[in-house]
Every structure is written in structure tokens, then in C-alpha cells.
Amino acid sequence: MPRKRLVLFALFFLPVAAILTQCLSNKEIAATDPRGEDYTGAKTCISCHKNIDQSYIHTAHYLASSLPPDSSVHGSFFKGNDSVYYNDHAHIMMQKTDSGMYQASFINGQQVNRERIDLVTGGVKGETYLYWKENELFELPVSYDKTKSKWIVSPGFDTTIASYDRMVNLRCMECHASYAKTEPGKVASFSGESVGFDKSSVVLKIDCERCHGPGRQHAEYQFSNPDIKTAKYITRIQSLSQTQQTDLCGTCHSGTQTDNSRSIFEFKPGDKLADFKKRAASAGPPDLKHLDVHGDQLEMLKTSKCFSASKMNCSSCHDPHKKQHDEALYFAAKCETCHSNANHNLCKMTGKIDAAVLRSKCIDCHMPLLPSKAIVNEQQSVMIRTHHIGVYPDETSKILQYLKAKK
Ligand code: HEC
Ligand code: HEC
Ligand code: HEC
Ligand code: HEC
Ligand code: HEC
Ligand code: HEC
Ligand code: HEC
């Protein structure tokens, strides 16, 4: 191109290009979101916060609910490993076809029921599957135990006969998804209390705005002001009070035995958890005898001296955007932000055992994996990390004996 024409070209096209890129970036703000006009969806957030997204997609929150093709169902569909047997006459076979993955129930070789895996919940320790019947969701009878790499009868299900009629209520979606609009159920039921969901309204996974609150105004502002590197119109979680921060996590991590007065889908950072739900009287007092290690990390943590004697919150140890399994040393370092020589509150075992062992076994001695009373798979309790931080003499002697044997 001759030089003059190039300049003309630039003069004419550059402003157009600039307008075009702006249009493009504004297009990245999703036009609608089922939660309302204040929301914009994770895709928008990710277009600017790419680093966070890269680690976030490996977290349990991302796995909390998903469609089967993108999360992949981990159990085996090969002959020999594809079935769960109730007895000599009854079993469930897992089937993979072009139209999806199915759980088919057989009695004496006759197929009596068959439903498709439409949604997957979980993916860290186990997976439980759901299927749609009309506008209602039901839990499927077979789950996958990832720790043992095998299909099992779904936790809490009858172990003598296959059942497909366990309805999934709003509570389940409130903790495992970002949104689901309820409507009257369309499947005839005896109790008359069935709840259905508007399928097109379901926002799967625990997404950015589930924790951060509606972010459309923030996204629009930052798009229109790309030179401004400070945030506007979004809550800064670190500046909330300890209770406000733990209430945010507690919307889903403070137990299932609760009386809910409002849907926790409406909870936004800064809100008070007590305005949404309270521990049910029937659940008993929130002491160690009545709490379970599963799903109740907030109440468990509150029974710990670390919590009552400090400004500790969940972020004192957890990075909500990162997968944090088997990182014993990472967590030990978190403990040491408060337990140090300078604070005169070091472990009483300091000097008695090797310093490296003290760190690598820190959480195993003081926050051991304990059996859940609530989730039992095939008569075996699922082991969950307790959030009652304390001294557990049994765990200590187990570890000390193991160390002795190794020498
Ligand atoms: C156009 C780009 C852009 C989009 C889209 C965007 N953000 Fe931001 N965000 C920023 C910038 C710039 C900052 C300030 C610098 C920083 O903290 O990274 C920020 C900061 C934040 C902060 C920290 C606030 C603080 O004061 O510490 C949060 C939380 C946040 N964004 C969440 C979100 C969520 C949730 C979404 C989606 C609803 C989103 N952002 C969409 C650009 C964007
Ligand atoms: C909307 C509900 C919800 C909120 C809010 C929530 N969580 Fe979770 N969280 C879950 C669910 C559900 C799981 C289990 C997901 C799964 O494995 O399917 C989970 C799992 C976790 C795990 C286990 C991670 C793993 O890899 O096993 C940690 C740690 C955690 N949450 C911490 C937090 C913290 C900290 C906060 C507050 C900043 C928080 N959560 C807020 C619902 C929630
Ligand atoms: C389980 C709840 C949860 C989810 C899901 C979540 N966040 Fe956060 N986010 C938090 C908490 C809590 C903090 C404050 C962390 C702290 O105290 O250090 C935070 C901090 C931030 C910050 C500011 C500090 C930083 O780490 O840069 C940004 C930006 C942010 N989140 C963006 C996002 C985006 C984008 C997504 C979705 C891809 C997302 N968050 C998903 C809970 C969550
Ligand atoms: C009050 C919130 C809450 C409700 C209600 C709830 N869950 Fe969970 N669920 C959690 C939390 C938190 C975890 C993970 C941490 C734990 O075990 O404490 C979890 C773990 C799971 C896991 C194991 C996940 C994994 O990755 O290993 C599955 C599967 C699951 N839930 C399915 C369901 C189903 C299906 C329902 C409804 C019938 C349901 N949950 C109801 C909060 C909830
Ligand atoms: C935010 C600060 C903080 C963090 C983080 C913290 N603690 Fe503590 N912890 C305390 C305080 C304060 C006490 C009570 C008084 C003292 O010992 O100084 C305490 C008490 C304890 C106790 C005595 C409990 C009892 O019932 O007598 C143990 C054990 C303990 N912490 C272990 C841990 C371990 C292990 C971690 C990491 C997983 C940890 N702490 C993280 C602040 C913290
Ligand atoms: C003193 C540190 C500390 C604090 C504070 C803390 N956690 Fe944890 N949490 C841990 C450790 C350590 C693990 C085990 C991580 C692993 O899998 O190796 C864990 C695991 C979890 C798990 C997975 C449990 C399992 O076994 O599947 C959930 C869920 C969780 N934390 C939620 C929370 C929530 C919600 C809060 C705030 C109410 C919180 N945590 C506060 C240290 C902490
Ligand atoms: C091998 C198990 C073991 C390991 C590893 C261990 N501790 Fe301890 N810790 C104990 C025992 C047992 C006690 C109580 C000793 C006593 O009372 O004589 C204790 C006491 C404590 C106390 C004081 C509790 C009190 O009564 O005042 C704190 C704080 C503590 N440990 C923190 C830690 C931290 C932080 C780590 C890791 C960096 C750690 N411990 C590693 C077993 C362990």
C-alpha cells in the first residue's frame, strides 16, 4: 500500500476499530441472567479475572453441580464393573448410549426402570446423579465413590431395592447451584407438596456472583473505564466483619438441619445469616455431641478456642479460588501465622518431635479426618476433616506409634 493511502486507511479505520473492540467487550457482558438484571454471569467476570478462573475451575465449588458431558461421570461402564447388586435377583446397570448415560434397574433379568443422568453433583469424594421427570428433579439410586473408585448405592438410600423416587428439594439446589427458580411440580404426588424448577432458570456450579453478589454494574463500569485499576460497585469481602465473612460461607456450610425463613439464593455478601436460616430446635444444641463433621464447618469452627480467641474466619486458612487438597505444609503455615514463638503459643510437642514432622502432621493431630454420622456408604462412614480445632490424644498416639515403627 502506498504511504498516503496507508495513512488515510489508518485515519479512517482506527476509530472504527476502536469502536468495534469496545462493542466486542460490551458484548461480553451477557444480556440476561436468570437471577435478574443486576447479575451478568461468570463468563463476564472471567473475561477480566482470567487468573482467578484458571484456578477456580479445579475447585469443589465449580464441581458442585454440572451437566454430565462437561464434568464427565467417573465410574466404569465396562462389563463386570458396570453394576451394583442388591441381591441375587436385583441389580442396577450403568449404560452409556448416544443419548446419554443411564441407570437401569433389573429384577430377575427384566428391566423395570431406567432413567438418564441429567445432572451431576460433586466430584471430590463422590458423585451423586439427578434426573428430570417433567419439571421435577430426582436423585438416582447409584452414586460413585471416588475414594474407592466404585459405584455404590446412593448414601441414605434403601440397600435392598432400587428407588427412583427421592425428590430433590430446593435446599439441595440452594447449596449446590447458583440459582433455580421454583414452580409447582408437574408430577402427580400423594403428598401434594412437590416442587418443580423452571429448567431454563438453573445456573449450575457455585459461580462468582453466588459469593460476590450481583456484579453487572461493576463489570459495566470496569469495561467503560479500562484505565481505572481499582474496583467499583462490588463488595470488598476482606473489609467485611468476621461474622459477615463467616456468614457468607455459612450460607452453605452451617448444617442441613435448619429452619429457613428466606431462600439463601438471595443472600449477598454483608447480609446476616440469621435473617435467612437458624439451626432447627430439633437438631439439638450446637455442641460437639450434636454437630456433624459433614457440611457444618462453621458451627464446628465456632466450638474451637482458635475461633473464639481470635478474629479468624474461613479465609484465614482457605483460598476460595483454589483447590487445596493434601497441602499439609500450606495449612501448617496458616496455623503459624498465629501460633509462633513470639506469641508464646507454640505446640506443646515442640522439641519433643522432629520439627519437620511437627509441621507435616500439624493438621492430622489437631484437625483429624473423622467419621461422619450423616454420610455412611455401605456401612462405612465417610471421613471428613473436622473443624473443631483441638487436642486429639488418640490421633497423636497413632501418629507417634507410626513414627516409632518407621524408625
Ligand atoms: C472489565 C473488566 C472487569 C470485569 C468484567 C469484572 N471485573 Fe472485577 N475487577 C476489575 C478490576 C480492574 C478490579 C480492580 C483490580 C483488582 O482487584 O483486580 C476488579 C476487582 C474485583 C474484585 C475485588 C474488589 C476489591 O475491592 O478488592 C472483585 C471481588 C471482583 N472484581 C469481582 C468481579 C466479579 C464477581 C465479576 C463478574 C460479575 C467481575 N469482577 C467482573 C475488572 C473487572
Ligand atoms: C452456595 C453455597 C456455598 C457457599 C456460599 C460456599 N460454599 Fe464451600 N462448598 C459448597 C458445596 C456444595 C461444596 C461441596 C461441593 C462438591 O464437592 O460438590 C463446598 C466445598 C467447599 C470446600 C471443600 C473443597 C474441597 O476441595 O473438598 C471448601 C474448603 C469450601 N467449600 C470453603 C468455602 C468457603 C471458605 C466459603 C466462603 C468464602 C464457601 N465455601 C462458600 C457450597 C458453598
Ligand atoms: C466460594 C465463594 C467464592 C467464589 C465462588 C468466588 N469467590 Fe472471589 N473471593 C471470595 C472471597 C471469600 C474473597 C476474599 C478472599 C480473602 O479474604 O483473601 C474473594 C476475593 C476475590 C477477589 C479479590 C481478591 C483476589 O483474590 O484477587 C476477586 C477479584 C475475586 N474474588 C473474583 C472472583 C471471580 C472472578 C470468581 C469466579 C470465577 C470468584 N471470585 C469466585 C469468595 C469467592
Ligand atoms: C446446607 C447445604 C447443603 C445441602 C442442603 C446439600 N448439600 Fe451436598 N454438600 C454440601 C457441602 C458443604 C458439601 C462438602 C463438604 C462436606 O462434606 O462437609 C457437600 C457434599 C456433597 C457431595 C459430595 C461431593 C464431593 O465432591 O465429594 C455430594 C454428592 C452432595 N453433597 C450432594 C447433595 C445432594 C444431592 C443434595 C440434595 C439432596 C445435597 N447435597 C444437599 C452442602 C449441602
Ligand atoms: C487467627 C489466629 C489463629 C489461627 C490461624 C490458628 N489458631 Fe489455634 N488458637 C488461636 C488462639 C488465639 C488460641 C487460644 C489461646 C492461645 O493458645 O493462644 C488457639 C488455640 C489453639 C489450640 C488449643 C485448643 C484447646 O482447645 O485448648 C490448638 C491445639 C490450636 N490452636 C491449634 C491450631 C492449629 C493446628 C491451627 C491451624 C490448623 C491453628 N491453631 C490456627 C489462634 C489461631
Ligand atoms: C485453621 C484453618 C482452617 C479454617 C479457619 C477453616 N478451615 Fe476448612 N479446612 C482446613 C483444612 C486443613 C482442611 C483439609 C484440607 C484437605 O483436604 O487436605 C479443610 C477442609 C475443609 C472442607 C472439606 C472437608 C472435607 O474433608 O471434605 C470444607 C468444606 C471446609 N474446610 C470449609 C471451611 C469453612 C466453610 C470454613 C469457615 C467456617 C473453614 N473451612 C475454616 C482448615 C481450615
Ligand atoms: C504428633 C501430633 C502433633 C503435631 C504434629 C502437632 N501437635 Fe500441637 N499438640 C499435640 C498435643 C498432644 C498437644 C497437647 C500436649 C499437652 O497438653 O501436653 C498439643 C498442643 C498444642 C497447642 C497448645 C494447646 C494448649 O493446651 O494450650 C497448640 C497451640 C498446638 N499444639 C499447635 C500446633 C500447631 C500449630 C502444630 C503444627 C504446626 C502442631 N500443634 C503440631 C500434638 C501435636
TrEMBL record:
<feature type="signal peptide">
    <location>
        <begin position="1"/>
        <end position="20"/>
    </location>
</feature>
<dbReference type="InterPro" id="IPR051829">
    <property type="entry name" value="Multiheme_Cytochr_ET"/>
</dbReference>
<feature type="domain" description="Cytochrome c-552/4">
    <location>
        <begin position="167"/>
        <end position="213"/>
    </location>
</feature>
<dbReference type="InterPro" id="IPR036280">
    <property type="entry name" value="Multihaem_cyt_sf"/>
</dbReference>
<keyword id="KW-0732">Signal</keyword>
<protein>
    <recommendedName>
        <fullName>Cytochrome c-552/4 domain-containing protein</fullName>
    </recommendedName>
</protein>
<dbReference type="InterPro" id="IPR023155">
    <property type="entry name" value="Cyt_c-552/4"/>
</dbReference>
<dbReference type="Pfam" id="PF13435">
    <property type="entry name" value="Cytochrome_C554"/>
</dbReference>
